[in-house]
Design brief:
mainly alpha, single chain
Length: 120
């Protein structure tokens, strides 16, 4: 009886998910298909990820600013700090949304837009 089991290699096709039936959540066939690197797919995954991270940061700062306003206890400087944090987070959300919209327009004009990637 051996404590070490032998492991055998298994075949893997692009886009089939992880071995064993589980999926990573990323459809790699949109990034690499027909033996060509799909620039539109990878750029949309990257921009989608950056937009998500930016939106979560803006949401965090909005919550932080709101809590700062609520817990200011009548202190005018703490209230202003919380209010400014909330305003700057809202401006950041507008900037991120506008930048993403401009990026999508540029991708469409250049011809690299794939509207059915399911990213955003």
């Amino acid at each position: 009886m051996s404590l070490i089991q032998q492991v055998y290699a298994d075949t893997y096709e692009i886009g089939q998910g992880l071995p064993g039936g589980s999926s990573s959540g990323i459809d790699i066939s949109k990034v690499y298909s027909d033996n060509k690197f799909n620039w539109a797919g990878i750029s949309q995954y990257i921009t989608g990820t950056l937009v998500f991270i930016s939106a979560m940061a803006c949401l965090f700062f909005m919550i932080w600013g709101g809590i700062g306003m609520i817990t200011s206890g009548g202190d005018k400087s703490k209230f202003e700090t919380g209010r400014n944090r909330l305003i700057y987070a809202a401006i950041g959300m507008i900037v991120v949304g506008s930048a993403y919209a401009i990026w999508r327009v540029i991708m469409t004009v250049v011809g690299l837009s794939e509207l059915n990637t399911g990213v955003l």
